[in-house]
Write a structure and sequence with these properties.
Layout (H helix, E strand, L loop, with lengths): L1 H26 L6 H15 L6 E2 L2 E2 L6 H13 L4 H25 L10 H6 L2 H6 L6 H19 L3 H19 L2 H11 L1 H4 L1 H5 L1 H30 L1 H10 L2 H6 L14 H4 L7 H8 L8 H19 L12 H13 L11 H19 L16 H7 L1 H7 L5 H22 L1 H5 L5 H12 L4 E4 L17 E3 L1 H10 L4 E6 L12 E5 L2 E7 H11 L1
Parallel strand pairs: 3-4, 3-5
Antiparallel strand pairs: 1-2, 5-7, 6-7
Helix pairs in contact: 1-4, 1-22, 2-3, 4-7, 7-8, 7-9, 8-9, 8-12, 9-17, 12-13, 16-18, 17-18, 19-20, 19-21, 20-22
Length: about 525
């Protein structure tokens, strides 16, 4: 009966998760610049019929490997080229992570179903996981590859050597195809620390480390099966970029996001909200029934601690880099909560409940004072009802404080997912009006069909290529290149992004629309030259 009830609650969680994903797909466009860029890369590969070398706006794209783009192509091959399929890839990866997390829990605690029962609730209710779950980016795909590799490590530690090392090799290879060699930073520390958590590695360390090396070689072979032909057909510059840029080149690139060693530590309560501010979790971790001697707990502690230290030592830091660590935290926290020695305490829900007030309070203040946050003026037009709906979480969660720890954990997970649904339904559509590249992209596509040459002045991230289904690339110009391009293309038009709306006058842009706190303007080349000359 208890298992049946647990399954019903898990089905309810999946339904809520599905509603969250559908709301995101239905209510918002692909966000510039990252989501639109990755969809544009997949679109150009599809349009060219070249599934080996990624391209962006006519040039080989060496910044990311092709696995995410291949997954987009897979859906397009079945459903046709649609906007919704690229946005469905991340939620499907999230579901895959949930499924593999449960599989890993059964491997870690084969005789204790309760130990992993709360892990999916903790994962779905973790702020960072919920925030990333519908974004078309590489981090959840990488997390899925990490889960494949970790299951392999655990299976090898439990005596399934051949299958385990094949899983680890597959995880490494797919991880390289997903986001590059960073997969090794996720998988190797816990595998190399196996003598601390795995008796098999302690009894035969030489065999263990030789097998880890063999799995790395298998992963390298999987990655090279793509990289070698891609490097050959992509040309010398692309070949140098994917072999150098994906390894040592990442070290120099990381300086773009340089942060101190301690950068992640003060952010953990936010990243892992609401769990780290919930006293019940800390009570569970201190409970005598939660043992650090347990091999499963040791495995998770090694995974969390070593990987967090490794990413803290790398100069470049972004919060999303920690997404593949979240399943480990959820398993460890879920196991601790399952071993609570006493009933939940009502006051323990007060702190996470108050945390849910922070967002509506911040939102209400930002709406009233957009300039204080450097928000565009239209922020004052956002509706207030989402803030009121989010504030309702406080009394509901406090009231649930009299219930069991399991009920409280489920309530917190529902609250986080529900908060994102409220934000998606109430706030995102209002923002999307000013962040949707589709109207401008449709105008550009119409010009291309009429044979009008197009150029973009300044940095361009291909944000119009996929959403407008552009068939030709847009030339990218620096300021000194503008006059020669206009001379060569007298009928051409130039895209410009300006901070302020055009004030009017003798010369006006052919097209103008608000976009992300700025204005997209489309000018005839000669008019733009005259306008810029007059501005000087």
């Amino acid at each position: 009966m208890q298992a049946r009830a647990r399954d019903r609650w898990f089905a309810a969680l999946l339904l809520l998760w599905g509603a969250f994903a559908v709301a995101s797909i239905w209510l918002r466009p692909l966000w510039p610049v990252d989501e639109t860029r990755y969809a544009s890369v997949a679109w150009e590969m599809w349009r060219r019929g070249d599934f080996l070398v990624p391209y962006i706006n006519g040039e080989p794209y060496s910044h990311k490997p092709p696995l995410l783009f291949w997954l987009m192509h897979l859906g397009w091959a079945v459903f046709g080229v649609t906007d919704w399929w690229p946005r469905l890839v991340a939620p499907l990866c999230a579901l895959g992570v949930l499924a593999l997390q449960q599989r890993l829990a059964r491997r870690l605690w084969p005789n204790d179903a309760d130990s992993g029962a709360l892990a999916p609730w903790v994962l779905c209710g973790t702020l960072l996981f919920a925030a990333m779950a519908t974004l078309t980016m590489f981090d959840l795909l990488l997390a899925l590859c990490v889960m494949i590799g970790m299951i392999g490590v655990v299976r090898a530690a439990h005596g399934e050597h051949r299958v385990g090392w094949l899983w680890l090799g597959a995880g490494i290879g797919l991880g390289v195809l997903a986001k590059g060699p960073v997969i090794l930073l996720h998988l190797l520390p816990v595998a190399l620390a196996a003598p601390w958590w795995a008796p098999a590695a302690r009894t035969a360390p030489a065999r263990w480390y030789a097998s880890v090396a063999a799995a790395v070689l298998l992963g390298a072979a999987i990655a090279l099966a793509w990289a070698l032909p891609a490097g050959y057909f992509g040309g010398e510059a692309y070949r140098r970029a994917i072999f150098w840029g994906q390894t040592a080149g990442r070290v120099s690139e990381s300086f773009a996001h340089r942060a101190p060693v301690w950068y992640y530590l003060p952010l953990l309560p936010v990243i892992l909200f609401p769990w780290l501010v919930w006293p019940a979790l800390w009570r569970g971790l201190r409970a005598g029934s939660f043992s650090v001697r347990d091999p499963g707990n040791r495995f998770l502690i090694a995974w969390l601690a070593l990987t967090l230290v490794a990413f803290s030592l790398v100069s470049g830091k972004q919060v999303k880099y920690l997404v593949p660590l979240l399943p480990a935290f959820a398993l460890l926290a879920g196991n601790a909560l399952a071993r609570m020695p006493a009933p939940a305490r009502r006051r323990e829900m007060l702190l996470p409940a108050c945390g849910f007030l922070a967002l509506p309070a911040l939102f209400a203040y930002a709406r009233a004072n957009p300039a204080a946050f450097a928000f565009p003026p239209w922020a004052s037009e956002l509706p207030l009802w989402p803030a009121a709906a989010l504030a309702l979480a406080l009394p509901v969660l406090v009231w649930l404080g009299r219930r069991s720890t399991v009920v409280q954990a489920r309530a917190l997970a529902f609250a986080v997912c529900g908060a994102f649904i409220v934000i998606g339904a109430g706030i995102v559509p209002a923002i999307a009006v000013y962040a949707d590249p589709r109207p401008a992209a449709a105008h550009l596509a119409d010009l291309q069909r009429r044979g009008t040459p197009l150029a973009h002045l300044g940095k361009y991230h291909a944000q119009y290529n996929f959403v407008g289904r552009l068939e030709q690339s847009i030339e990218i110009l620096d300021n000194p290149e503008l006059a020669p391009w206009v001379a060569a293309h007298p009928a051409g038009q130039v895209i410009v992004v300006e901070r302020n709306r055009h004030a009017g006058g003798e010369r006006r842009p052919e097209y103008e629309t608000p976009f992300r706190g700025a204005w997209i303007q489309l000018w005839r080349g000669e008019a733009l030259l005259l306008e810029r000359g007059a501005a000087r």
